[in-house]
Specification:
The complex is a heterodimer of chains A (370) and B (290).
Chain A (H helix, E strand, L loop, with lengths): L11 H24 L12 E7 L2 E6 L7 E8 L10 E3 L2 E2 H7 L2 E7 L12 H20 L4 E6 L1 H12 L4 E7 L18 H8 L2 H11 L1 E2 L1 H11 L1 H15 L3 H15 L4 E2 H13 L9 E2 L2 E2 L9 E6 L7 H5 L10 E6 L5 H4 L1 H16 L3
Parallel strand pairs in A: 3-6, 3-7, 7-8, 8-13, 13-14
Antiparallel strand pairs in A: 1-2, 2-6, 4-5, 9-10, 11-12
Chain B lengths: L2 H13 L4 H18 L16 H28 L8 H10 L3 H18 L11 H45 L7 H20 L2 H31 L5 H35 L14
Helix pairs in contact in B: 2-6, 3-4, 3-6, 5-6, 5-8, 6-7, 6-8
Classes of the chains: A alpha/beta (370), B mainly alpha (290).
Chain lengths: 370, 290
């Protein structure tokens, strides 16, 4: 057998050239960074007006970008983990703009910035309180009986519960990247997928109670760390390699910074609501088993009788597709459709291919069901 | 001391960061731990349940130390031998050394650890000595956190060693096939791919989940122990305690809930009346109780 060669043959002159290239990138990046102003990394810039407010919750109405073709209006509900701004990250990567351009009349609810003072707010308050008020306000403003709901991630759970409890108030429901069966992550053995499900199940319920007792909330930075754990090497390389790759290209660098801005803006999750989210749903899986109770009323998924569009990401490592798709077998409507999209959890909203399909897919589906 | 000055001191201490402060207190607190443990010594208060466990800490330290030596040696061997048969270029060696530095894994995977520490180690109240027992509880909780953190890092280091082993195997296979990686990007890509797989597998393992859980519990215990000290001083100087504020907020939340329900009932009354008299209802979900 011949003597094996060196597994790495980086010639010194190559290394020097690579280092020089690196230096140039850094210099260009530093120059660009010095010129950047906060205004240039603004997110969620689509014009909108606040139309209603209660406590820290605000309801906004987006200004039309095209004549309205789809009725009734759509109310977007994001969850309490992360912020709705993901749906309107930047002008050319915005579900909100895409829908507005396609003639959808759009509202969004902003849950605000919960603090320890909001420790005692429950999912009951959010779903049967604030979300219900928002639905009523939109209905009142447009003199309609029903509105369309578009729930995103945890917000999709809110809209699902709401639609089951108030089917008379919902014309159509669209959910995106929404967990329904919180234990269905075990159906597919994909490495790196469903880690939050597994991690949450590894905790004892009293660990969660004490965490909330200590902090009053589920701290935003804590959830940020859990998400970072899901993509370990990516997290490790993000601020040296990924940033380095894009920092001399203004457009790519701004995209990177906008995404970082969204990631950094992670609100605290009110404590009691977090307990329900982690214990009742992630641990005990009550939603899919029709055992989740809101305001003394059991959420029965078969009470969802309006048309449902379930959008999920085929490579979603946070909400594995099976956890979303479980809804199909449980709803009380025959008009149930799925829209699987390429990409991951966030890629659905910002990925070039997916976000185009997402906006048009939703608008078309809604316009067929006016 | 004037209460206002005490509060200023507390506020200053609250913002103090870094480990050096805690380290400076460590010996003194250890002495206190021993004193509290000594039987019959002025009838000491019962020791807190999570009393400092030097044996467990030493064990955790030794396990980590052993692994660290292996990892550091392997890392250096990688950097040295990857350019086998040639005069190693210092620039390339330096670059490879950085890529395969196992401590980077703590920096990267430490997100959770760091977040927990930041959350747990907010207030620094150790230089006010009126409540030795509470302070001892803080110290014990802090020690437990360091121990859990060390145990978690040991799990991560084992993962690094596994990743490094897989990487070395891949490189040897390439060498046998007379293939070579020609740029640092190629080296890095192979390392990232190999390491990512190992890390993801590690995260699903029982030891990882267990050490994460213990770390979370330890950070929570520390936070709660610190809050007890803060409660004591707040009460002493007549400032609202965290428990009192939580109580107020609870009442406020309940009142707001009631107001919302009353407002809704007020709005729904005419609608129900209208329905009874046969007029269409103006809003959607009003039939159902909330």
């Amino acid at each position: 057998m011949s003597k094996p060669g060196a597994p790495v043959e980086i010639r010194p002159e190559q290394a020097v050239a690579a280092a020089a290239e690196l230096g140039q990138k850094l210099a260009r990046g530093a120059e660009l960074f010095a010129k950047l102003r906060d205004d240039e990394v603004k997110i969620a810039t689509t014009p909108k007006d606040e139309v209603w407010r209660q406590d820290k919750v605000t309801l906004h109405h987006y200004r039309a970008l095209a004549p309205v073709k789809v009725a009734p209006p759509v109310l977007i509900a994001y969850g309490l983990i992360g912020r709705y701004t993901m749906a309107d990250l930047q002008e050319d990567r915005s579900l909100v703009r895409n829908l507005l351009k396609l003639g959808v009349d759009l509202y969004v609810v902003d849950w605000g910035n919960p603090t320890r003072a909001d420790r005692w707010l429950t999912l009951d308050d959010y779903i049967d309180g604030y979300l219900d008020e928002c639905v009523r306000e939109v209905a009142r403003r447009h003199k309609v009986d029903k509105v369309n709901l578009l729930g995103i991630c945890e917000g999709g759970v809110f809209t699902t519960c709401y639609a089951a409890l108030h089917p008379d108030a919902v014309k159509n429901m669209v959910i995106t990247i929404t967990p329904i069966d919180f234990h269905a992550d075990t159906e597919q053995d994909r490495l790196g997928h469903g880690f939050i499900n597994l991690w949450t199940r590894s905790l004892a319920p009293e660990d969660i109670d004490r965490l909330i007792e200590a902090h009053g909330t589920l701290p935003g930075e804590f959830m940020g760390s859990v998400f970072s754990m899901m993509t370990p090497m990516r997290t490790l390389m993000k601020y040296n390699l990924d940033m380095l790759e894009v920092m001399d290209d203004e457009k790519k660098f701004l995209n990177f910074l906008r995404m970082e801005k969204w990631i950094a803006d992670r609100p605290h999750h009110p404590g009691e609501a977090a307990k329900q989210w982690l214990k009742d749903l992630y641990q005990d899986n009550k939603l899919i088993n029709n055992a989740f109770v809101i305001n003394g009323r059991t959420v029965n998924l078969s009470d969802i009788t309006m048309p449902v569009l379930n959008v999920f990401a085929k490579d979603d490592h946070i909400i594995p597709p099976a956890t979303s798709q479980a809804l199909g077998a449980k709803v009380g409507t025959k008009d149930y459709s799925e829209l699987p999209l390429p990409g991951g959890h966030v890629g659905v909203f910002v990925g070039g291919k997916s976000q185009a399909l997402l906006g048009s897919g939703i608008a078309e589906w809604l316009s067929e069901r006016q | 001391m004037d209460p206002a000055q005490y509060m200023k001191a507390l506020a200053d201490l609250w913002g103090q960061g870094g480990q050096s402060f805690v380290a400076a207190q460590q010996n003194l607190l250890r002495d206190m731990a021993e004193r509290f443990n000594k039987p019959g010594d002025n009838a000491p208060a019962p020791a807190p349940a999570n009393l400092f466990d030097p044996a467990a800490m030493t064990q955790a330290n030794e396990a980590f130390g052993r692994l660290w030596s292996s990892a550091a040696e392997l890392s250096q061997t990688f950097a040295r031998n990857l350019q086998q048969g040639k005069e190693p270029d210092p620039l390339v060696s330096g670059l490879l050394g950085r890529i395969f530095d196992p401590s980077a894994w703590f920096a990267g995977s430490e997100g959770m650890d760091a977040a927990l520490n930041r959350l747990a180690q907010g207030p620094r109240l150790a230089d006010i000595w009126n409540t030795e027992r509470q302070m001892l509880a803080v110290f014990n909780a802090w020690t437990a956190l360091r121990r859990r953190s060390l145990e978690h890092n040991t799990v991560m280091l084992e993962a690094w060693l596994a990743a490094a082993g897989s990487f070395a195997k891949l490189l040897n296979e390439k060498a046998d096939r007379k293939e070579a990686l020609g740029s640092w990007r190629e080296v890095l890509a192979l390392w990232v791919e190999t390491a990512n797989k190992v890390l993801l597998e590690t995260q699903r393992s029982e030891p990882y989940l267990k050490s994460q859980r213990e770390l979370l519990k330890a950070s929570t215990d520390l936070r709660l122990a610190q809050q007890e000290v803060a409660e004591f001083y707040s009460e002493m100087f007549g400032y609202p305690t965290r428990a009192e504020l939580d109580d107020v907020h609870k009442t406020l939340t309940e009142l707001r809930r009631e107001v919302r329900a009353l407002e809704r009932a007020g709005r729904d009354r005419p609608a129900r009346k209208a329905r009874r008299s046969g007029v269409a209802r103006p809003a959607p979900s009003e039939e159902k109780p909330s």
